[in-house]
Design goal:
heterodimer, A: 4 domains, 16 strands, B: alpha/beta, Rossmann fold, Hypothetical Protein Tm841, Chain: A,domain 3, four-stranded parallel beta sheet
Chain lengths: 596, 278
Amino acid sequence: MRRTTVSATKPAPELAVLREPLREIGGEQVLAGLTAALSWLEANQQEINDLNVFPVPDGDTGSNMYLTLRSAVEEARDAPSPEAADSVLAAAAHGSLMGARGNSGVILSQILRGFAQGSSQRPRLDAGGVALAMTEASAVAYRAVMKPTEGTILTVVRDAASAAAAASTTTDDIRVVLDRVVTEAHAAVERTTDQLQVLREANVVDAGGFGLAVILEGFARAVGDTSATAPAPALVRRSGEPALRLPPNPGDLEATGSAMPRRGAAAVAPREQGWGYCTEFLISGPGLDVDSIRTELSALGESALVVGDPDLVRVHIHTGDPAGLIAAASSRGRMSKLKVEDMSAQHHDVLERADAREAESAADAVGTAVDERTQAPPKPIGVASVAPGDGFREIMGSLGADSIVSGGQTMNPSIEDLLNGVLAVNAEHVILLPNNVNVILTAEQVDPLAEGCEVRVVPTSNLPQGIAALLAFDPSASLDENCDRMLAAIATVRAVEVTRAVRDTKVNGHNIKVGDVIAVVDDVITEVGSEYLNVIEAVLNAEAKKPELVTVYRGQEVSADEADALVASLRETHPGTEFELQAGGQEHYPYVLSLE
Amino acid sequence: MIHLVTDSTSDIAPSDAQALGVHVVPLIVRFGEEQYRDGVDIDADQFYAKLERSDVHPTTSQPSPDAFASLYRTLLADPQDEVVGLHISTKLSGTLQSATLAAQEFDTARIHLVDTESVSGGLQLLVRAAVDDIKAGDTATAVAEKATRRRSKVTIVVLLDTLTYLHRGGRIGRAQAFVGSLLNVKPLIAVRDGEVVPLARPRSLSKGIDMIVEQVRGCAPLRGLAEFHAAASESMVELESRLGTAVSNVTAVLGRIGPVVGAYSGPGGIGVACLGAD
């Protein structure tokens, strides 16, 4: 299935001349643009997730970008000078950085940072200013990535910036500039399929690039367009493609009397059950069982995000019955920062009050954390480690990790989550173990934010590497020595992650069908089959050097008996190898194996 | 004449001690009410066999001051004679305390006691080096001084099967950091400055031996090398062959981890001690 996107915003030229050119924008328009971009991104979130190439369940690009941008918008709302574009953008950039999660989220935060840098000292932006900011956004994003790859969000931001620069030399109308930007962004998204082998094989466009195009589109449609009755956009849809949800039509917004609906309501058929309530809150522990809370609360709504640790869980769920959800949640622990947003109607006053309360309690929370931190003197060195699942948390704790940040495959922690985890270590030097390919880039943003401690990331790209790194940790050695030891240790393990394909695809010459068991060895799909045992056997038999020790971490969905049986079979067929079975408790991966 | 005295935690074989003219004062190992003198009433084989069968965990105690006093009385019968006593780290045992108490009965100038900050093979290598010094004609004071200087050149690394015994025996020191691992690890520990310190947590014998070899290489040039095991002869064979290729210019002393030290290492441990050249 080829998924393509089409710009929905190309205006008819004659209509453009009918409108007054928009020569300048200030803080209010930037905020309106960002808010619209967020709504539009939320509406397209699932579609972006579904563009996931890899047939393993890590389709969270859309969610990561959404959470990152949401954090940006929340902070932009509280910008010190709401009327100044530079102030709003600087606040958005900071918010996005704190909320950034996943690779695309981090790159998005860098794009916003670049945009803010390019707009600094400019309370009002003209067309040239927008182009300059876009150029800076592209430059900063490229710098954030060590090995920039074409055919990704980077290509899209660069091409969009070029379009802005070219347009700004011919017009001073920001609308026209943004229209070109959006058109070019979508064209660049289309081209990604041919730029990256993995995308070509799977016949999809790049998810992060598409997400950026969606953001630009939402932004463009709202900026400076709060009063004009815009024409219905020309919609081109190729047959057989999934329905493209449209950005909200500014004309409709006018009718509802609000800045922006929470959902792209204009072109989307209303759902019978309505949009429900976007409900968010925190549950405070101790002793919270994140996984069981997630299971229970997810059943009560949609778009559930339940993340955290035994001490604090953050919940974000769309539900038709917020009261029931709150009742269920309150039995788990003390609730705070409750925010219920009616997604069908608009309750701005309520929201603003909630935001103010949230800001207050957030300030309180920070104060408390600082007080607690100052109680004990920091130790010289410690480790913060990212782990999904209770089993891995316990194992890592038992190996000496001082703080565990919840997260992993489909719930990448934000920079703020990681920063909090690092600060919780309370050490002068903190080694941060991301333990997932998609968390490494986020982790690398933490050091400059962590005041009073030096943070070093040992780029563990999977859980077995994280365990190996922790085993190598020596609290009496220096930061450099420990990093060296850990790097050497992660080179000695091979990680095998076993899961079931969530889509049909073709990767590395393997034709993969939904439900196939696939084994990812050191981040490369190497075996495909129908049963866990056969696939694991194939992986072990393909090893050039027979492993001495294989540690099998069973995931949440595998029973102890099932895993015991599997390991018993492996012991029989591999007599020279020692097998150790542990409960990892990870989601999505029934088995994770460490080969040593 | 200079008499060299050590204690049974040097894990020196009785026949070697006799051949070298070294006097060994036994520590005590107990299983409940049963009490044995280390290396006298119980040897390593008997101890590990008993350890496996016994419901009670063995405890140990330092020799009584009397045990030292009666030995010193014999050795110092000739007024020209002196004693050099090289003993287990005071951070691991009160043995030197007993020796010091015993020495007060005598002319303390004639008894030279050294805290070797060492144990097992490490202590034994220091004793063997002291035997050489005595043969070379050093005074008792010089022998004791040299032993004191050499203790910083001793490296002891032990790959344990488990930390349980060290933990129960309260001799874990900073290796505490290794306790509680939910994964099976083979803790690699060292004795440094007289204390047990954690080195690494390899997950397999082969990796552990790699690390031991690396530690030994780091001590070169070597004056002495000792390889020990606690009822782990198979692992010992592998250790010997790997070390044999890595270190060729010294003859290794091979031995067993005896009952008292074995009560802390537990069965299954293998270890190496080496002494760097002066």
